[in-house]
Amino acid sequence: MATLRLGDIAPDFEAETTMGEIKFHEWLGDSWGVLFSHPADFTPVCTTELGAVANYYPEFVKRNTKVIALSIDGLESHLEWIKDIEEVQNVTLQYPIIADESKTVANLYDMIHPNANETLTVRSVFIIGPDKKIKLILTYPASTGRNFDEILRVIDSLQLTADYKVATPANWKDGDDVVISTSIPDHDIPAKFPKGYQQIKPYLRMTPQPNK
User: Fold this and answer.
1) pTM here?
2) Is 59 in the same domain as 140?
3) pLDDT averaged over 10-residue windows placed end to end, the chain, 212 residues
4) Which of 55, 103, 129, 170 registers the highest number of CB atoms within 10 A of its CB?
């Protein structure tokens, strides 16, 4: 299939998970979503990642974001693996893992990169908006664990910029100043951004984060 791109509708699917059968779009509802894949069960880096997401789970909930993992092993394997994850990471998994032995979802989302590995999924991350459109795609090699602080930071940026005509600069974190969209003329800024602004260049105008 064609490679997914930003702005595409996230492919819908039905799947068996560790928390029952789901229809993906229906399961997402009006929430944001994070779908992230793993090369296989009982792998060391993945074990740390799934535990990290369990620790961060309240932060995803605060952001109206549902998280769901995927591995191309079966449900029974997933359930056994969860015991290890919960033991070694001292967590309780509050989110589902998709069983994708047929690789149906992996292929829908182009998670298998043959030049990296012909059968295993790479570490893909898809952030999906309430409109079911793909807002971010990240792809990591199997050897590199993901940074979930960065994924939360991106969700903060996506949600902010969806509601206000702003962008977030390099290394931005929630609470930092933001960039005013170049589509807004100077004379409209005071009404839209009453906290004031700093013009660094005609095209680079900074203002305090508007929803703080």
Assistant:
1) 0.92
2) yes
3) 85 97 98 92 93 97 98 94 96 96 90 58 87 95 90 98 97 97 96 95 97 90
4) 129
Distances 144 to 31, 105, 154 between C-alpha atoms, Å: 28, 22, 19
Residue 81 lies in a domain: yes
DSSP symbols for 141-187:
-TTS---HHHHHHHHHHHHHHHHSSEE--TT--TTS-EEEPTTS-GG
For residue 124, the cross-strand partners are 139
In the DSSP assignment, the letter for residue 4 is: P
Using CB atoms within 10 Å of the CB of residue 174, give its burial: 0 to 12 exposed, 13 to 18 middle, 19+ buried. Answer: middle
Q: Which domain holds residue 187?
A: 164-207
Q: What does the pLDDT look like over 180-207, one tens digit per residue?
A: 999 999 999 999 999 999 999 999 999 9
φ, ψ of residue 171 to 5 degrees: the values are 65, 20
Q: Which residue numbers are catalytic?
A: 46
Per-residue pLDDT of 158-176, as tens digits, reads 999 999 999 999 999 999 9
Domain with residue 28: its CATH number is 3.40.30.10
| Whether 19 contacts 93, CB under 8 Å | no
The sign of the CA dihedral 177, 179, 184, 187 is positive
Q: Within this chain, do residues 128 and 188 fall inside the same structural domain, yes or no?
A: no
